[in-house]
């Protein structure tokens, strides 16, 4: 079984537990996913079955969209509401206009420290292992993240709700904490729902509770090529198709429609999805052959 199953992850379980459940139901060991969600978070979790798991590192759409609620005046060790409170602020809370100005300053690229409760390794140990033993690293790895937009949708004087569009690698609970620090009152993530990831929205997602058999999976399974719909398409002739499947780099000048398109999805002369290639410098170089996936 190969293909993509978009799960609407429920609250209270890890992304790994979702995968473990699907492995048990399907009997398939090779299953990957398109971006971890914390246990408290819900929403879009693309799951890749069989050979389709090979596409996790070449997904073209890095955009992720979240709906978040942030509680002001509270900071926790996990940067979300499930953690232990480490500080509380008793002063006057910021106005909506102050929040809007501060939130807007995070749009674009900014340097984000990896949270202690994460699977990132430092010195051979996962940060969450160090955190659970009571250790806090002040010089944690810092990564440049990209925030495309933050739209504030509500503020009741205590909690902020907003939609954030960002790129792969952004920790939303850290963003919430950083916004709180910038406001001077502290903050922690209260709730999080991912509505879009790797090209898939909630409209394509199914509830994990509705998947209890292989038949349920097969009915909801999407073709591998769906993940690459953003990419331009190149169609090969019969001879070129055979050469592509044999791993041969092709001369772009001999391919109708090839013209320095960059990364492309490749189809055979009969419309069969073959894989992904780079159309650059006069050559069509194979990235991955995905025929039959």
What can you see in these coordinates?
A hairpin with a 5-residue loop joins strand 17 and strand 18. 18% of the residues lie in helices and 37% in strands. The strands form 4 sheets. Strands 1, 2, 3, 4, 7, 10, 11, 12, 13 and 14 form a 10-stranded mixed β-sheet that branches. The chain has a 5-stranded mixed β-sheet with strand order 15-17-18-19-16. It has helices spanning 15-26, 96-104, 127-132, 172-183, 214-220, 238-245, and strands at 3-9, 31-33, 42-49, 63-72, 74-76, 85-88, 108-113, 121-122, 125-126, 142-155, 159-167, 187-197, 200-201, 206-207, 233-235, 250-251, 262-267, 273-280, 283-289. It has 3 domains: 3-57 and 202-227, Pseudouridine synthase; 63-197, Pseudouridine synthase; 231-289, Roll (Archaeosine Trna-guanine Transglycosylase, Chain: A, domain 4). It contains 6 helices and 19 strands. It is elongated, with a radius of gyration of 22 Å. With 293 residues, it is of the alpha+beta class.
What's the architecture of the largest domain in CATH terms?
2-Layer Sandwich
What structural category arises from helix and sheet content? alpha+beta
Mean pLDDT: 94
Under CATH, the homologous superfamily of the largest domain reads Pseudouridine synthase
What's the number of structural domains? 3
Helix percentage range: 10-25%
- Sketch the topology as an H/E string, one letter per element: EHEEEEEHEEEHEEHEEEHEHEEEE
Q: What gyration radius follows from the Cα positions, in whole Å?
A: 22 Å
CATH topology of the largest domain: Pseudouridine synthase
- What proportion of the residues form beta strands (DSSP E)? 35-45%
Any idea of the CATH class of the largest domain? Alpha Beta
Question: What's the count of strands?
Answer: 19
Quickly count the helices: 6
What is the CA–CA distance across the termini?
Answer: 8 Å
Low-confidence blocks of residues: none
- Report the sheet with the most strands, covering strand number, pairing sense and barrel closure: 10 strands, mixed
């Amino acid at each position: 079984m190969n293909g993509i199953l978009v799960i609407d992850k429920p609250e209270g379980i890890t992304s790994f537990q979702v995968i473990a459940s699907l492995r048990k139901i399907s009997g398939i060991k090779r299953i990957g996913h398109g971006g971890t969600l914390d246990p408290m978070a819900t929403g879009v979790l693309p799951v890749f079955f069989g050979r389709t798991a090979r596409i996790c590192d070449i997904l073209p759409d890095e955009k992720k969209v979240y709906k978040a609620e942030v509680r002001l005046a509270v900071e926790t060790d996990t940067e979300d509401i499930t953690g232990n409170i480490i500080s509380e602020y008793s002063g006057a809370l910021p106005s909506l206009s102050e929040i809007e100005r501060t939130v807007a300053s995070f749009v674009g690229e900014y340097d984000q420290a990896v949270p202690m409760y994460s699977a990132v390794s430092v010195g051979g140990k996962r940060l969450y292992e160090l955190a659970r033993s009571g250790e806090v690293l002040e010089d944690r790895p810092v990564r440049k993240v990209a925030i495309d937009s933050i739209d504030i949708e509500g503020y009741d004087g205590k909690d902020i709700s907003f939609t954030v569009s960002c790129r792969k690698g952004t920790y939303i609970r850290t963003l919430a904490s950083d916004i709180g620090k910038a406001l001077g009152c502290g903050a922690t993530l209260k709730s999080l729902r991912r509505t879009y990831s790797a090209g898939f929205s909630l409209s394509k997602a199914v509830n994990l509770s509705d998947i209890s058999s292989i038949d349920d999976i097969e009915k909801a399974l999407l073709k591998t090529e769906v993940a690459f719909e953003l990419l331009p398409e190149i169609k090969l002739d019969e001879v070129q198709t055979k050469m592509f499947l044999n791993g041969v780099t092709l001369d772009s000048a001999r391919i109708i429609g090839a013209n320095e398109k960059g990364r492309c999805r490749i189809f055979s002369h009969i419309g069969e999805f073959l894989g992904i290639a780079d159309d650059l410098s006069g050559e069509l170089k194979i990235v991955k052959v995905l025929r039959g996936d």
